[in-house]
Amino acid sequence: MSGPTARLRVWGVLPDCYADRRVAASTVDAAGRMVALLVAPWVTCSERGAVSEPYAATVVVVDGDDITEVAIPELNLRFPKIDALGDGFVLVAARCRMPAVPAVRTVAELEAQIPHNGRVVDADGSTRTTFHAGDGIEGLMTDPAGDIWISYFDEASVCAPHLAPRDPIQPPHRMTMSLPGLIRWTATGDPAWYATQDGCGPSGWVDCYALNVGARRVWAYPYPGFPLVEIDQRGVRCVRRTSVRSASGVIVADDRVAFIAGQGRGPGADGGYQVTFARIIDGPVETTTTAPLLLPTGQRPTTWARRTVCRDNRMWMQFDDGRTWYTLDIE
User: Fold this and answer.
1) N or C: which end of the chain has fewer CB within 10 A?
2) Which of 226, 213, 105 is nearest to 149 (CA)?
């Protein structure tokens, strides 16, 4: 992409043979494959206020002309999210019922009440492990190293295992964490890093508005300050100020950055995205130019994105059609 243009192109479309199934979750994984979680039309796992019984699902992976199907016979995840993890998959429920108040009296009682709304699934669909991923999940992404990155919005909370060195006298325990922002989990569903406990990071992680999980770096864009936070396996590397507010996507190529943000939320504003191009120059992120986000037809989208995935210098978006992925990249 050269100059101040921001035109999407079609990345891929779910084959017509799945037209009779509902897309409950979908993403583009670290290898660029489309991954979709399909359910029967009557399954209500993605509807507000609806309570689903365990339901059958099929994971479909589209890699060019190659299509792989994996059956998962029983899921009980509400508002599911999915990504590939090694030869299998990781799934989470974006919403779950946290332990009741008043607080339980023992660790055993707490463990019994904590919902395991995360599931790691093998290539044959069998469950490898389950774990508590927390309530109020914004996004789920995995990286090539096999770690799981979960971002959270402003109503989030998680009963998280304490990461401090273990006391030989006191047993391991959990802490109730509100506004966790971003957590890196291992492939076995164990927390490895909390954004809110990293002293090099920003003071607030109320809502992780945008997340970019790349091959070697992760970039986060949290509210309220909207800085661009650079993260590696050791934690936060750098926090850079930005002038862009409320972006839902960020893509990075060396010192070049693009923020994708909606313009207005009033009548007729749906789909009015603006792309702000910027550079990283020894400190704050400095904006250079802007351009409207356009569909391949040259028209603006008519709806807000249903799903957005950012990895390194590329972003993928889905709009009203949950079977089609569009992409935008910078070089």
Assistant:
1) C
2) 213
Nearest of 82, 208, 84 to residue 143 by alpha carbon: 84
From the CA atom positions of the chain, what is the Rg in Å?
20
Count of positions (residues) in the chain = 331
pLDDT tens, residue by residue, 221-270: 999 999 999 999 999 999 999 999 999 999 999 999 999 999 876 555 78
Other beta carbons within 10 Å of 106:
8
Residue type, 116: H
For the CA atoms of 241, 246, 250, 255, the dihedral, rounded to the nearest 10 degrees, stands at -20
Residue 147: CA atoms inside 13 Å, Cβ hemisphere, count?
20
Q: Is residue 120 part of a domain?
A: yes
Q: What are phi and psi of 201, to 5 degrees?
A: -85, 180
Task: Give the domain extent around 113.
Answer: 14-246
Check pLDDT > 50 for residue 1: no
Residue 291 lies in a domain: no
Whole-angstrom distance, CA of residue 255 vs CA of residue 246 = 21
User: Could you tell me which residues come within 8 angstroms of residue 321 by beta carbon, excluding any fewer than 6 positions away?
Assistant: none
Two structure tokens written together for 259:
């923020």
Alpha-carbon distance of 255 to 241, in angstroms, equals 14
Q: What is the pTM of this model?
A: 0.93
Q: What is the CATH number of the domain that holds 27?
A: 2.120.10
**Domain for residue 2, yes or no?**
no
Residue 75's alpha-carbon distances to 48, 83, 98, 118, 175, in angstroms, are 17, 15, 19, 11, 27
Tally of domains within the chain: 1
Would you say residue 253 lies in a domain?
no
**Contact call for residues 149 and 182 (beta carbons, < 8 A):** yes
